[in-house]
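Consider the following assembly input.
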Amino acid sequence: MRTSIATVCLSGSLEEKMYACARAGFDGIEIFEQDLLVSQMSPEEVRALAARLGLSLDLFQPFRDFEGVDEDTLKENLRRAEAKFQLMQRLGMDLILLCSNVATATINDDELFAAQIRQLADLAAKYEVRIAYEALAWGKYVNTYQHSWKIAQAVDRPNVGICIDSFHILSRGDDPAQIAQIPGEKIFFVQLADAPVLSMDVLSWSRHYRVFPGQGGFKLDEFLGCLARSGYAGIISLEIFNDVFRQSNVQRTAVDGLRSLIWLQSQTAALLEAEGISSHLELHALPGRQQAAGFDFTEIRTEDPEPVARLLVQLGFEFCGQHRRKPVQLFRSNDARIVLNSQRSSGIEAEVCGFGVRMPQAGEAAERAQALLAPEVPRLHLDSEADLPGFRAPDDTEIFFSADKSGWDLEFGGEPLAAAEREPGAVTGIDHINLAQPWQSFDESVLFYTSVLNLHALPGTEVPSPRGLVRSQVLATDDAGVRLALNIVPAGLATLLDRQHEYPEHIAVGTDDIIALARRALAAGMEFLPIPANYYEDLAARFDLDPALLTALQELNLLYDRDGRGEFLHFYTQRVGNMFFEVVERRTGYDGYGAPNAPIRLAAQFERSRWNSH
Amino acid sequence: MRTSIATVCLSGSLEEKMYACARAGFDGIEIFEQDLLVSQMSPEEVRALAARLGLSLDLFQPFRDFEGVDEDTLKENLRRAEAKFQLMQRLGMDLILLCSNVATATINDDELFAAQIRQLADLAAKYEVRIAYEALAWGKYVNTYQHSWKIAQAVDRPNVGICIDSFHILSRGDDPAQIAQIPGEKIFFVQLADAPVLSMDVLSWSRHYRVFPGQGGFKLDEFLGCLARSGYAGIISLEIFNDVFRQSNVQRTAVDGLRSLIWLQSQTAALLEAEGISSHLELHALPGRQQAAGFDFTEIRTEDPEPVARLLVQLGFEFCGQHRRKPVQLFRSNDARIVLNSQRSSGIEAEVCGFGVRMPQAGEAAERAQALLAPEVPRLHLDSEADLPGFRAPDDTEIFFSADKSGWDLEFGGEPLAAAEREPGAVTGIDHINLAQPWQSFDESVLFYTSVLNLHALPGTEVPSPRGLVRSQVLATDDAGVRLALNIVPAGLATLLDRQHEYPEHIAVGTDDIIALARRALAAGMEFLPIPANYYEDLAARFDLDPALLTALQELNLLYDRDGRGEFLHFYTQRVGNMFFEVVERRTGYDGYGAPNAPIRLAAQFERSRWNSH
């Protein structure tokens, strides 16, 4: 599939955008006129730079407010158009986007639209320019693809076709199925955009909130399937107006965009294959999608392992050994393995730096990650050591794939560790990992984890904290064997370091008997995050709890929640550096994360952080 | 008027919020339950702290999802309510907010609603608690104030009245006029919120985008007028859910909130006085509203005045003199006076630090600013020197008021400067000042300038820059004698210093003949901000310009715009420190600011800034 991206998706100068698109691996770009206007580069320079970078210049856009106007305006519009055709010649471009008239149309007459566009087409033909007519969702008279196609047919010129933009169709709730009836060769261009499901005016939604395919709520695989059915064999381009992308690192955004198209074509290929439909789009399928079997380990980077080790021992973890070569320690309780890594840890008190997931076919999972442009984590392994392929997520978390019997823990002690007898109140495994996300890379992270790890996104929530709302997004495998909670913390007024301390990341481990575990931890000297008395009074008001349980909860600083399926008990340790631990007990299938309790935790940590800084 | 504010409007812990509200000068607060739950303070401590700070605890809120339920749920709800009444006793509070049921109502029956709320009322009476019933705009069955009032009447208990919230009424487009028909004593509480006019689902709009009165698009003076007509004599409170306020400095937000109520009651008092209506609200009117006659001067802070002075001389300004006592210089061209201040300027290359406006009654303008809680700028003046009262805007700009004949310029030379003969191409005066705003204080700034300087806000715009969209808001006097453009720059990835260099502030001065001025400036060695050739090609395509004019524009790096009234020609100087100058010529009444050219400028400055940093 030939891929392209509109320059308006990215931050920076036109030159920076072109470099970023080429490095990411796009085949071409759309020149958004504004980006050229503000550039010091001449059209000839742009053309030459694109040629050197191997980028095709696929579409010049937008040309606005042309058809449906009076004769004087038409004359003016044709003059304006001719100047742009001349500019396109200098750029070496042959396709222009004509948007349906929004502002200046005064005559609602399909025949007039066609006649005027025919004049434009004949003028364009002199410059060997083709015209892709696009119905904007808020076009004054023309705002559906069916209508733009009807007009393009009436124009009846070989150099006039239509442009299909998923946003303009799906935002209106229109059915894309009829795209399949349009001859593919009359679809001159395709632009894809996803968007979160928002209820707001469509213009603002379009201009600020578009996201890359897979980051929103549109079914773009089905949409692309409709295009495949039409016989379309052209370019698939991204046109994403997004306030955050405009502020983000141009190179990362370009990679994020291409990843979305790689993922989408694989999804679509699977869809079409299931229906036995062949496509001219040459959709590339990714190496097999597989379900992660669970967390293999989590990794903490720390200059001094002792404070974290102390917490782990208080939680009942056992020290397994030191790595044979590296300053890395392994702790374990049943299926929960925690690695304390002191490499490259100068000045780092403690932070969650990565995790491993068990994959039935670890090699294939790594190939998939590579195909999805995940940056590799180079890690030396000797011949006698396990080779776990590793990749860096947008939030800098390192993710490793391991087969069921990779045996990496052999490097920590010579003998595989016998699975300890599961005692009541022992930590049984890793329940979930909570990772802080920079606001610039949240959508990127969601797509990364969804596509590379095959997680699916649950509905997002917002949690009030003393410094602003924290946006939270859970991603999980279908069987919830791997669960991640991504949090975007508010930018606020604090410095980065303050923010890390107020919004630390955490590892949540599970147990079958949290009260026994908490009592043992308390006896071992563990300090819990203190929960206010007001919380327990409200708990009593909200739930008709057994008074003995309520007393135990308050005594041990445990929190409580309930859903339709069961109960959730959990507690938090104090923070060490930029991380802490949570211990959870899920009773009879509770499936949430104690969301009502998250504000309590955030306020308590905030209070503690202020208290520590005095 | 008694003022109050809900703790949910503010950032920080409950304790911090209470201190901030008391310091700002609120009479009381609403306790938002979540803020109490997450607090380590006991209810008794909260009560005692409020007493010491002189804050009344006006409303406990919210109590949700009570009425319209089955018998079992009702029983559970009454149990839950009783726990809250007991809590209120410990807090010493007697008023609770009951929101119309959103989630759990299953029976749509007004009589049942009334009967169930009557049970609640009788339980509440035992604890001497009164209930203010509020129709949420998205209540399942009850979502208008008329409906909630009908039910409150049917409940027929002295301890049940209604709560009126402007957002829930105005967001639906409901007419508040009927509020005047409700007996004031049955309105137990009033919450005010403004909001920008947005087209989105009302729940998201309410939870994230509310703003203080005067910062949005609701006509809250008319709304408060309706309440006055009802005979309401109670508290007017602010309940603002705003994502930015939640992240901002708690003390500043509290002052901002109280300022909004001070301003609103004065606006409402004027409205009622004009209609001859008396009110029990005891609305306090501010000292007279007056129109600023124009800019008196603008002030630039700079460690080394020479680079700015060089620009001014190139633009035709004359040096008038050095201040008799202070390291401050005055430059002038006709009505444009520019002060270069080197006090407290260590390390500051150059920045726009303030401006003076001429006020017919400067003393009264200062009283008004004081009443609006504007922080004063302490400035020493000897008996022989002019005393210009000064105030600090939320963006730290210093604003001074001067009477027409304050004679402060005498301090710069001994003699008042004769108004220079106005030559063609001389700078004639200050056209507007463009001030960068931190994103946290944008709404605060708009209210500040609107209320303290009597400016009105024009529709906002968004300007693309290479690092994100810049939100721009023009504020002006009715006759446009004083114009400010406030810009919020994107947070982006850059450091604060980079941002200042990429998004500097500027002073725009006017002239009658910009081409003559630009030629003289060029001859004097001025470097203009270089405008790309692509811009002039587009200009030729958009406007049918005289080729000679187009050539002159390009040669001189001038930009061009046109509106229904006339033409606009302008150019930019290079940046010095965090500021630059713009020169504008408005032909035949052009009233804009060259908005289509702003992206050209931002990209050119961005390019320049990168170039300089290499």
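The domain at 294-613 of chain B is CATH 3.10.180.10 (2,3-Dihydroxybiphenyl 1,2-Dioxygenase; domain 1). Ask yourself how this observation constrains the way the partners meet.
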